Amino acid sequence: MQEKKEEDNLKEKKAEDAVCLRREIGLLPAVSFIIGTVVGSGIFIAPKGVLMNSGSVGLSLLVWALCGVLSLFGALCYAELGTTFTKSGGHYTYLLETLGPLPAFLRLWVEFLFIRPAVASYVSLAFGRYVVEPFFAPCAAPEGLIKLVSILGVTFVVAVNCWSVNMASRTQVTLTFIKMFALVLIIIPGVIALFKGRTENFQNGFEVDLITLDRLPLAFYNGLYAYGGWFYLNFITEEVINPNRNIPLAIICSMVTVTIFYVLVNVAYYTMMTPGELLLSDAVAVTFANRALQGLASTIPILVALSCLGALNGGFFGSPRMLFVGAREGHWPPIFSMIHIRRRTPLPAVLLLYPLVVFMLITGEIYQLINFASFSRWFFIALATLGMLIHRYRFPLLPRPFKVPLIIAVTFTVVCFFIVGLSLYSDPWNTGRSCALTLTGVPVYYLTVHRFRLPHRWRNAFNKCCRKLQILLEVAQQEVQTY
């Protein structure tokens, strides 16, 4: 009896010491993770893009509400996918399980080639702008200084995510509470002014003459970008405690909350600012604060900067898990499926993103980055939910702990494909480049996945480099299966 007890204790100790990603994300961190990743720079910058492309106040508010509903529909589809397939990796895993390895690899390829660098660049540039601009107001801030501060923000987030999963999770919870406080601070004065009768900017809100159908998809892209991030919890499924309960619950709670807050924030903006003033502002929240919160105006840029930092942290926490799973499945070099032996973080996957983000941050233009990244992102999300419908049809008896109504799944998939198709007409240059870059992954797929076709000398050199990197970074393969 004593020997058996000692053997059990030894097994537990081995499991504790094993190199693997642990289940440490409960319901509150999961909700904070989604809200903290969704609410970033988008709500403080995207209102300009939505209004510019929708043409009127009323239609822009409708776009914000519809984007929230559409994002909730997508999040519910991903709740089903996340509870059906218990692996981390999000889009990549679902495409692999439902449509096969090539679409999954292409999603992995574009995520790390330009989607994640583009999105992280956008958020970090917003962080830099909100930190720097108050010191130069009313003059324009130097672009070089904004980019330097943006790089420092990215560096901090990468360091936190390399250091500890626990630290990254706690940072996310803290920053989420700060950013929700920032939204409340904007909503309250706007709602008070509205009740006092300040409604002139909402009169003739739907000016039909200003609506241009070719630009409407770009309005939705800007709105959907602000809601982007509802799928990041699916990237870390293997680290969520009781995922069958916590994933759907966290997704529903967070997306309903975000939609309500976003619409109210935009109502507050239009209460205090005319459409013309909003279009002239590159930092909408700061302009609003100067009008409505004179005493607290200086705190708004700080709160928005911290909000951007939270979104960056969420992205760097989630996205490397996709690369980690892709490498584990043999679709990426094995070094990226390794974990730091003491920190228990996917160190190589996190570090790979850093130079890519810095490069795009230095060379990119903020509004082009959204349109550039959105085509591939939404195309593959639509493919993932289409794959879910096909998988349902092929395997009707497979247990699904959470099942989204069919009408919601079909509506979301059709709308996504429609927006993606229309964007080819609205912005053929950026969407065409995005499409072309996606297709460059096809030859890479056959070179990396089918490595036996490469010359023997190349494979030996590649494997030697991987071993040297493994020793340098102090990383090892996962020792315990977590799915």
TrEMBL record:
Major localization listed first in the record, in broad terms: membrane
Signal peptide per UniProt: none
Localization of this protein? Membrane
Gene Ontology molecular functions: L-amino acid transmembrane transporter activity
Q: Which InterPro entries match?
A: AA/rel_permease1 (IPR002293), AminoAcid_Transporter (IPR050598)
Q: Which residues form a coiled coil?
A: none
Q: Where are the transmembrane segments?
A: 21-45, 57-79, 113-132, 144-165, 177-195, 215-235, 247-272, 292-312, 347-369, 375-393, 405-425, 431-449
The record, for Pfam families, names: AA_permease_2 (PF13520)
Bilayer topology: Multi-pass membrane protein
Q: Please provide one cellular component term from the Gene Ontology annotations of this protein.
A: membrane
Sorted alphabetically, the keyword list is: Membrane, Transmembrane, Transmembrane helix
- Top-rank taxon of the source lineage equals Eukaryota
Q: What is this protein called?
A: Si:ch73-352p4.8
What organism does the UniProt record list as the source?
Oryzias melastigma (Marine medaka)
